[in-house]
Amino acid sequence: MHWPVLLTLMPLTSIMTSSLGLILGTRISPRNISVMFGFIILPMTFLGGTYYPWTALAAIKVGGFPWLQTLVCINPLIYVTEGFRAALTTLPHMHLYIIYPVLTGFCALFLWLGTRGFYRRVLS
What we know:
By secondary structure, the protein is mainly α. The protein has one domain. 69% of the residues lie in helices and 0% in strands. The protein has helices at 3-27, 33-46, 67-72, 76-88, 96-123. The longest helix has 28 residues, at 96-123. The termini are far apart. The model has no long low-confidence stretch (mean pLDDT 91).
């Protein structure tokens, strides 16, 4: 177990995921919550690398291009999963110099969008 990685990833991922929840909560109306689970949460979960390493998707190609592996890289949960895989196991994982900047970027973006959406919701 790598304690420095674990202790720095936990607050970073907590802020990022709660900010993502704030975005979803302020942008999606309450009557469309069931649609959100089907079209946003479920694909994010299954394509988040929890059940398999993201490198396993390289085998799925169209015209020699690993399209699903590339598409999965826009999912913030991939970086969370790979970070915790790096902190808690000895299995191969994504490099930490990729995980930390991407998670920090997602954190800043989601926090900005979430607070902006919350501000609009409060004023309306």
